[in-house]
């Protein structure tokens, strides 16, 4: 397949600056890289926070976006795991140490083949674009067993001895109204060892901590006030902030095992996507790259719930 010399991309022009769709050169693949024609990219919560708060990224202008899916159109030297024409889902290039990003909000992505996975024909590009960040955010904070990882350090179900190891042990996931919290201890018979607060606001955090047994783990998706962390530690509870970036060194080992098993997990239906994954759904925003900013604004205004916003990059108008 031939590749163009230029493409359209969405840039964040400066720290807390403006977004702009403009033309940029296509990056040539280096050793170990692939070039993907990006058919779909998913929006995550972190992009709007980077723009609004000026956090995590120091090199500008930058291209954000952590999730994408498309077709391999070119191979770098030494790549043997893919061929041109493969359908893949992939993770954007975000160097959390250097504060640099070359993400998925563009029409052709060049990056390491290490962080791409083949997808079956039965899975659409839109559904596949929601995989990487969602799976990593859910998995790494529970299963990353590296010593310094912010994780509950459970044994992953895709590793030997992991499947069924925790059968019968309840986990509480907070993702909706706090009125649900009062019923949890009645259902589970008492506090539980693992609570995943997928909202992590002032309304949900006290419930999450109250539902966690001493010696247990609380997973949060936003920064937690120091006083709550101090109280949790005093009560013998550990609080872990999610970190779902595959490229971060602390995630390399667990991420490598997950990516190796991911095609099997998708094919078997152990990880379900799109209409098969209730209540998660995806919604396509019109306008390609030009639809991203409006989608991020909806997320900022809490107008998105239980759905992943997706754009089709080749439909940029």
From TrEMBL:
A Pfam family it matches: ADH_N
Highest taxon, organism lineage: Eukaryota
Boundaries of every Enoyl reductase (ER) domain copy: 17-311
Recorded GO MF terms: oxidoreductase activity, acting on NAD(P)H
Protein name, entry field: GroES-like protein
Species this chain originates from: Dichomitus squalens (strain LYAD-421) (Western red white-rot fungus)
């Amino acid at each position: 397949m031939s590749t163009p010399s230029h493409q359209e991309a969405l840039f964040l022009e400066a720290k807390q600056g403006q977004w702009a769709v403009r033309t940029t050169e296509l990056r040539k693949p280096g050793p170990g890289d692939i070039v993907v024609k990006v058919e779909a990219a998913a929006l995550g919560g972190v992009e709007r926070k980077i723009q609004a708060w000026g956090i995590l990224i120091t090199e500008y202008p930058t291209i954000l976006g952590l999730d994408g899916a498309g077709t391999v159109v070119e191979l770098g030297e030494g790549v043997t795991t893919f061929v041109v024409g493969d359908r893949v889902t992939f993770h954007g290039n975000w160097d959390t140490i250097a504060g640099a990003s070359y993400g998925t909000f563009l029409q052709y992505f060049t990056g390491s083949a290490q962080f791409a996975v083949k997808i079956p024909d039965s899975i659409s590009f839109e559904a596949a674009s929601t995989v990487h960040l969602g799976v990593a955010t859910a998995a790494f904070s529970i299963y990353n067993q590296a010593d310094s990882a912010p994780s509950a350090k459970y044994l992953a179900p895709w590793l030997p001895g992991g499947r069924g190891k925790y059968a019968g042990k309840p986990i509480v996931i907070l993702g909706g109204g706090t009125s649900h919290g009062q019923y949890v201890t009645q259902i589970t018979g008492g506090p539980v060892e693992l609570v995943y607060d997928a909202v992590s606001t002032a309304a949900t955090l006290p419930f999450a901590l109250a539902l966690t047994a001493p010696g247990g783990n609380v997973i949060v998706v936003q920064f937690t006030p120091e006083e709550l962390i101090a109280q949790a530690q005093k009560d013998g509870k550990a609080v872990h902030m999610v970190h779902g970036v595959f490229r971060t060194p602390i995630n390399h080992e667990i991420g490598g095992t997950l990516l190796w098993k991911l095609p099997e997990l998708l094919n078997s239906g152990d990880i379900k996507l799109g209409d098969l994954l209730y209540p998660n759904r995806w919604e396509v925003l019109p306008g390609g790259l030009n639809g991203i900013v409006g989608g991020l604004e909806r997320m900022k205004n809490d107008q998105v719930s239980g759905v992943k916003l997706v754009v089709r990059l080749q439909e940029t108008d």
